[in-house]
Each structure stands twice: as C-alpha cells, then as structure tokens.
C-alpha cells in the first residue's frame, strides 16, 4: 500500500507552461498542488486555504529582473501568515538577491529551469519546516492559554458567593497536601469540578487525574476495573490491562458516587487503600500504587454508617478533609454568573445571536428552587438558546419544572393526632416552602444547623 501523500503546495508564477509542468510532477508527491499566474490573488488564496509551502516567482512581467515585485509579495504573505514557508523562484542566479530574500523571511530559493529531484528535496525540507513552525505556534498558544488560566485562581469554577469562597479557601489549604478528600453535595453541584481543581493545584498536577464512577461498575467487574487483570483471567480478558489505581499512580484517583458501593466491595477498596497495593485479577504479585484519593457522593454517607450500609473504617480512610458543596439555591449571587457563562457558551456553539437573559427571566431564575443544581441550569440554558428566536432570552424560553407541591394530607390534620416525627416533617417542609428551598434560612428559622437539617431531609425523604 502506497504511503499517503501530505502537504499543500501553492505555486505563483506568470509562466503557464512552467506551472503546468510543475503541477504534473509535484502532484505525484504532495496531497494538493494549486497554481496561479496572478499574484494579486494571493490574499484570497491564502485566506481560503492554509498552504504548507508557497513557491513564489521573484520576477513577474511588471518587473522582469530586479525581484522587487517578488519581495513585495513575500512581505504580504508573511504579513498574512507569519508562519508561512515561502520558497522563491528566480531565473537569475543572483546570490545577493537570494541572501536578501532569506534575510527577509524566505525559507529557500530555486533556480529555473530546475532539476526535479532538487526541487522535490527543497520542497520536502520546506514542508518539514512548516510542520515544526505550526507545532511551535501551537505550543505557544497552549502556553499562553495555560498561563492566562493559571493566573486566574480556580478559573475552572464559576462562583463568587460567600459559600463558594469558603470552598475555595478549603481547596487552597488542602490541595498542596496528600490528604484524602471527601466531597459531599447534591447531584449537579460540580463535585468532579472541585476534585479536578484540587488535583490541578496539587503537587501531583503533572501526573494523571483518573476518574471512576463507582455507581456504574457492576460487582463482577469491580476488581478488574479498579485493580486490572491478566490476560485469560476471565472470558473477556483478551490482554493484560492496568486498573484505575495503576493508571493513577503518582497522580490523583477520583472515586465518584462512592456511597453507591456495596459493602463487599467496600472491604476490597479499603484493603487496597490501607495497603497501597493492588493485585490484578488472575495475578499473584501485588503492585505498589502511590495515589492521592478524592471521593464524592450525593448520599448521606454519615447516616449510612449508622445504618450499617457504609463501613465506618472506610469513611475514616476517605475523609481526612471533607468539603460540603452548597446547592445552587444557596448560591443566589452565582446564578446569573453561571447563566451568562452558559448563554455565551451555547450561543457560540450553536451559532445563535443570543446575548443575555431578560429581567423577567432573571427574576424567574432567582426564585426557582433548582433541584438539579448547576447541571439543570446548564441544560435549561442550552435548550433555551437552541429554541429561542430572540437575542434576549425571555421567561417562556426557559423550561423549568413546577416545584410547588400541593399540601399533603398529613399537613392538613390536627397536630394532636401526630407523633413527633410527623410534626417535624411538616415543620421542615413548611420552612423550606417559606424560604423557597433556601437551606440556610430554613435551618435558622427551625433552630437547626445546616448539617442537622440535611440529615433530617434525608431521613424524611424531603
């Protein structure tokens, strides 16, 4: 099978015979060869196509021998694309002209009539130079982007509210350590984003960040997924495979939805964390692993310890530091920051002229409970941007769930017929309705701490 041709070549010369001969020869070696007799079309040609090498005649009919027109167009090409690779063509082997051309940005020159093999060697060298230039430009862009990103602390997280400032403070304190971190929060609050921020600001940031959704791993594949396996150790084990622990060696292992892990698997995970070793399925030799562990769950994991559905020793192992992520309804100051971010993102993605949210829509978003948190806000904005026919989003563009629930029967009966738990459930529900789901305000009115109220919410399924 022949090697795939690469490289796009543009040849500018007013000699049509030369262009035809060059195209016939070079098409056998490069992916694309375009020719043009009129240099005035260069700006259009280079705008419509990104050429790897441009062959440019030094002397057109307007200026037969001095090369001045060639120098003019060399400057224009480099102005349009500073990374352009230009090989000049001249029929007058003037060494001084060639030296000046290279000083002014040309890569090389060829004399006409040329030898085909020499021309091919020159263009291949020029093509390699172009590839290196593009690589350097890409690295520069990446470096600038990374530097700008690094200059903004926690730029990957959107939020300026007081509760998020506390989260940032915690990240700053723990990131540089190797302490295990447990992130608690409702679905859609951005737990993985916080985990990545911790990794990014840690001493392990040049190593891998490996995430695992423990809620999606079946019991039969748990050991293979986390610890790896040897070829032939079970039916589908067609080759040796490193598990997530090995993949995260020297980096960070993020165990999402750890509260969903069944008790038998909790014991296996605890053993790996305690011994800092894993043994691949089908192998006898243990492998040392050096990982920083970050876990997350939306479940009431402390209550699960009392219910004997989560091991206490595993909880001690994973939560040296605990971060409680607030729900979006407790981040009033961040709702519009997030909404504007998503509006700009999806307007660009879907090429829609949507610029902002209207005042009525802003009021509606600020009153809404956001049970799905940031994820719900993101999906709602995406849908609104796609469906809207306006450049300012209106309330009717945003589809939100109806959160107000009818009063249940047990709230309408006399309190004298209820036990203490029924009364507590009713009071909590009333407080939440009064404060539009704002946990902190409801807790203050009830005389509870936020954590105490969270435990009761889980207990009563509210």
Automatic annotation (TrEMBL):
Keywords: ATP-binding, DNA-binding, Nucleotide-binding, Phosphoprotein, Transcription, Transcription regulation. SMART domains: AAA, REC. InterPro entries: AAA+_ATPase, AAA_lid_NorR, CheY-like_superfamily, Homeodomain-like_sf, HTH_Fis, P-loop_NTPase, Sig_transdc_resp-reg_receiver, Sigma_54_int. Residues 157-386 form the Sigma-54 factor interaction domain. Residues 8-127 form the Response regulatory domain. Gene3D superfamilies: 1.10.8.60, 3.40.50.2300, Homeodomain-like, P-loop containing nucleotide triphosphate hydrolases. The modification 4-aspartylphosphate is found at residue 57. One of its GO terms (molecular function) is sequence-specific DNA binding. Signal peptide: none annotated. One of its GO terms (biological process) is regulation of DNA-templated transcription. PANTHER family: ALGINATE BIOSYNTHESIS TRANSCRIPTIONAL REGULATORY PROTEIN ALGB, TRANSCRIPTIONAL REGULATORY PROTEIN. This is DNA-binding transcriptional response regulator, NtrC family, contains REC, AAA-type ATPase, and a Fis-type DNA-binding domains.
């Amino acid at each position: 099978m022949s090697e795939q041709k690469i490289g796009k070549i543009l040849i500018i010369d007013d000699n049509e015979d030369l262009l035809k001969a060059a195209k016939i020869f070079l098409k056998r070696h490069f992916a694309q060869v375009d020719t043009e007799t009129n240099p005035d079309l260069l700006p259009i040609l280079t705008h419509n196509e990104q050429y790897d090498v441009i062959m440019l005649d030094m002397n057109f009919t307007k200026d037969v021998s001095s090369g001045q027109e060639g120098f003019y167009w060399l400057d224009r090409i480099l102005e349009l694309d500073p990374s352009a690779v230009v090989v000049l063509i001249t029929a007058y082997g003037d060494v001084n002209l060639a030296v000046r051309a290279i000083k002014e940005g040309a890569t090389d020159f060829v004399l006409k009539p040329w030898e085909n093999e020499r021309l091919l060697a020159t263009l291949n060298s020029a093509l390699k130079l172009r590839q290196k230039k593009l690589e350097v430009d890409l690295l520069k862009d990446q470096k600038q982007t990374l530097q700008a990103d690094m200059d903004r602390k926690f730029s990957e997280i959107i939020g300026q509210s007081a509760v998020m400032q506390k989260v940032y403070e915690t990240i700053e304190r723990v990131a540089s350590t190797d302490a295990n971190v447990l992130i608690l929060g409702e679905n859609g609050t951005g737990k993985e984003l916080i985990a990545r921020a911790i990794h990014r600001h840690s001493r392990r940031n040049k190593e891998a960040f490996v995430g695992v959704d423990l809620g999606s791993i079946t019991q039969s594949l748990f050991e293979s997924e986390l610890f790896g396996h040897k070829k032939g150790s079970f039916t589908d084990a067609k080759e040796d495979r490193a598990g997530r622990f090995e993949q995260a060696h020297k980096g960070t292992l993020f165990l999402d939805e750890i509260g969903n892990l069944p008790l038998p698997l909790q014991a296996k995970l605890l053993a790996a964390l305690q011994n800092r070793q894993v043994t691949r399925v089908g192998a006898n030799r243990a492998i040392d692993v050096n990982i920083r562990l970050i876990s997350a769950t939306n479940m009431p994991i402390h209550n699960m310890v009392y219910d004997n559905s989560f091991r206490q020793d595993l909880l001690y192992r994973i939560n040296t530091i605990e971060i409680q992520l607030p729900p979006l309804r407790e981040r009033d100051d961040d709702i519009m920051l997030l909404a504007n971010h998503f509006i700009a993102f999806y307007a660009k993605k879907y090429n829609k002229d949507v610029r902002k949210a209207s005042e009525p829509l802003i009021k509606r978003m600020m009153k809404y409970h956001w049970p799905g948190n940031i994820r719900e806000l993101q999906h709602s904005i995406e849908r609104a941007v796609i469906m809207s026919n306006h450049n300012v989003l209106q309330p009717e563009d945003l589809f939100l769930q109806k959160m107000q629930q009818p009063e249940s029967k047990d709230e309408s009966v006399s309190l004298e017929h209820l036990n203490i738990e029924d009364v507590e459930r009713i009071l909590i529900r009333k407080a939440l309705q009064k404060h539009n789901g704002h946990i902190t305000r409801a807790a203050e009115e009830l005389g509870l701490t936020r954590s105490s109220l969270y435990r009761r919410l889980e207990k009563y399924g509210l």
